[in-house]
Every structure is written in C-alpha cells, then in structure tokens.
Amino acid sequence: MLAWCQNITDGYKDVDITNFSSSFADGMAFVAMVHHYFPRAIDISSHTPQTQRHNFEVAFKVCACACVRVCVCVRVCV
After folding, report:
1. Separation of alpha carbons 69 and 7, rounded Å
2. In sequence order, what are the residues at sequence separation of 6 or more whose Cβ sits closer than 8 angstroms to the Cβ of residue 12?
3. Is 77 helix (H, G, I), strand (E, B) or coil?
4. What secondary structure does DSSP assign to 4-66, as a single string?
5. Residues 30 and 72 sit within 8 Å (Cβ to Cβ)
6. What pLDDT is recorded for position 70?
7. Phi and psi torsions of 61, nearest 5°
8. Sign of dihedral through CA atoms 42, 48, 53, 54?
9. Which residues of the chain fall below pLDDT 70?
10. Which of 12, 14, 29, 49 has the most crowded Cβ, counting Cβ within 10 A?
11. Residue 17: what pLDDT?
C-alpha cells in the first residue's frame, strides 16, 4: 500500500510519502493522490503544505463528487 501511494504521487511537489502518519499530515499527499485520478478536478498549483485545511477540504469534496467513499472527515485530519 505504501509503495502504491509513493508510486502515484511520484513527482508531485511537496509530497514525499515515507509513512502513513506524518507524510499525510499537511494534506498534500491526499491531494496528490486524488489529483492523480481526477486531474481536472484539482488545481494542484493552489495547494501548499501551509494550506492544510484547504488541502483536505478540496480532496474530500472531489472524492464526494466522484462517489469515492472516504472513511474520515476533515475534523479528524486537521
């Protein structure tokens, strides 16, 4: 699973996945993963590690619109 996450986010700025906790803390890894599958739905250039809440909100919104079930909420992630 870790290798899959690393593979689909390879090359994304500010994304370096080495584990499932701190590597996902700023939302960039999640945004990159969602962008990988829905590139037209996310303007990846508008996301930075400093916009943590925004990163998660956008990624969750895109998942919801695409009927992708996510088992956590922004409150848990931020």
Report:
1. 22
2. 28, 32, 35, 44
3. helix
4. HHHHHHTT-TT---SSSSGGGTTSHHHHHHHHHH-TTT--GGG--TT-HHHHHHHHHHHHHHT
5. no
6. 62
7. -65, -45
8. negative
9. 68-78
10. 29
11. 98
